[in-house]
Known about the structure:
It is a single chain. This protein has about 700 residues and is an alpha/beta fold. The protein is globular, with a radius of gyration of 29 Å. 1,4-dihydronicotinamide adenine dinucleotide (NAI) binds next to α8 and α11.
Amino acid sequence: MALNLAALGKPIGPVTKDYHWKDTVLYALGVGAGFEEIEFTYEKNLKVLPSFAIAAVFDLFFLFCTEANVDLAGILHGEQQLTFHHPIPTEGTLKTTGQLTHYYDKGKDKGALVVGESDTWHSNGKKLFTSRMTMFARRDGGFGGENVSPPSIVMPDRKPDFVVEDTPSKDQPLLYRLSGDIFALHVDQAFAAQSGFEKPIMHGLCTHGFACRALIKSLMPGRPEQLRRMDCRFSRPLYPGEPIQTQIWQEGEGRALWRVVNAQTGAVVIDRGVLEYGDVPAHQIRFDNRVAIVTGAGGGLGRAYALELARRGAKVVVNDFGGARDGTGAGSFAPAAKVAAEIEAAGGQAVANDDNVATPEGGERIVQAALEAFGTVDILINNAGILRDKSFAKMTPASWQAVIDVHLNGAFHVTRPAFEAMKARGYGRIVMTTSAAGLYGNFGQTNYAAAKMGLVGLMNTLNLEGAKYNIRVNTIAPLAASRLTADVLPPELLEKMQPEYVVPMTLCLCAEECAVSGHIYNAGMGYFNRAAVVTGPGAVVAGRDQYPTVEEVAAAMDRIDSLADGKTYGQVSDQLADLLAAFASPDAAEAAGQEKGARGEPSVAAVFEALPGAFRPEAATGVSAVFQYRISGAGGGDWHCIVADRQCRVVTGRHDRPTCTLNMAAADFLAMMSGRLAPLQAFNSGKLIIEGDIMKSQLIEKLFKR
Ligand code: NAI
């Protein structure tokens, strides 16, 4: 095996993880917290123990290892550095992206160090923490790289200022592993023996959590949100039930050194710990040196966006055609000029532009105005809009076309040249403007609703195309008093609907800090929520060798119609993966009339039948391999999958010269294919045994959509 040097610097992830307050409590219990630290263990006034950070993104450890192509049999978690930017909320979704940053060569028989860094963002838009993990790859040394410099941290030669005693229970790993790291080494007697230990050992990160509690208790009692940085090196294994001491030396204001020792043997278990703590300076979201285009900014919401962007440092192109509410009229420079003048009077920078978004030339000229005045485009808010309401029976082609032209085509005309400029610079924030009328329907607005939902489709795909250039595309569904709503909402309601209530959300989506892309938010009166296309779990109605009948579909309508446990998808392949997984579920197999094993388990045949449909020829250039599957247990059997010439064929039975053979029990195989069991976890826990070329087996994840 050779380290994959080409993987250095390539983006890894995003990995997303939903978590609930119970996950944070389970973690705290897993690292020894109890009644004494009730702030971590009781949902009332709950706080999150900061070391939860690393347990929450631990999947990245395996991703780093796979991308680096390390020999999995020789990996250990060597060092861990965590920098905290904001306290971890008690629930939400974490999104983590990372990259491999360094490989160090300790020598042929001494192994290699593989370093991966990642940033984790919360669904509230805040960057929570940065992690730097060092993996010790014992079997990958001698590749000719530079050696790591000697450590710069020297532990003090004096008595520690604080010593916190604790004893993880004999069963501690059983509780800790429920937070995600289910590696067999910490639970399985035979596996531990094979790895050279007398019994399962503590997770290094579990001991790390004990240390985190001790540090908080000693240095910032009751205020875990003050933890800024926690670094350490894992030096020796610890057995559950052995007493530990966390030794802490204060090193000036807001800084301490620490280590954990085995109190029985004196052996240092975690070494060279560094801790920084203190209050976070108040953070202001700024747009200094950013160039923003706001279309339709001569009044209403657009004006409010432009003023606030400029107040926070952006240079703004204030675009407005200056026509009537229904888009008629020759246009006027006055509305855009007035807002630009307002910005300048307040000390900001702006240029006015009165081009029409509804034409390709208009879109080009708006972007050109930004390039000429300020040299680039970082932010685009597609906001311009008109209304021509009529019930559908009275909708004329002209009214239909005019509304589509301004909203949907208009966004296309401006975004196309702006996207080019953003792509070239590797940075962009784009906001589309939809409407509740499009998302949910509104009588008399078929043209407007169609255009507004068209913008959601535009966002969905542009989000995917922009991702690798750091271009994030989101959509706002505002509700505000403006000339568009002046006669459709009651005056007393309009009074409470100033555009300024919408501005903060739209500006969040324009900020560098914006962690989301492809999302839709309702915003009005200070109330915000996310809207999304949700897909229900559905039902497999396909017969074994025949199409489902109309009656069968009608009979299954309740299940097909249900949105219980509905999901949002990031792209079409995610939805396709669930479609394939649906055929791997026991219910589906039964519905499809497949053969059952002796004990009633479903056959895995449907999964292999569906496999060619999940094949990704674009990922198979130059790949020639035969993957043999030997699935044991009821419903199992032998199948092999031949990949050559960017094609894939699945054949029942055994191949005489497979590249590698994957051995699994049927139930585990089905769990893995339906996404309930991660392949690396299956491998690490011994549920997946690979014979032959293990390296080639790692291609499977790339060759097939999940
Ligand atoms: P507004 O009428 O005050 O602002 C729209 C601006 O777009 C106007 O100043 C208009 O001159 C400009 N405009 C129209 N056609 C243009 C063109 N072809 N080229 C350049 N500029 C053009 O209305 P409001 O409410 O501020 O609307 C802003 C956006 O928010 C629109 O896209 C609207 O559909 C959307 N929206 C507004 C809601 C609300 O409650 N106000 C509800 C849902 C969506």
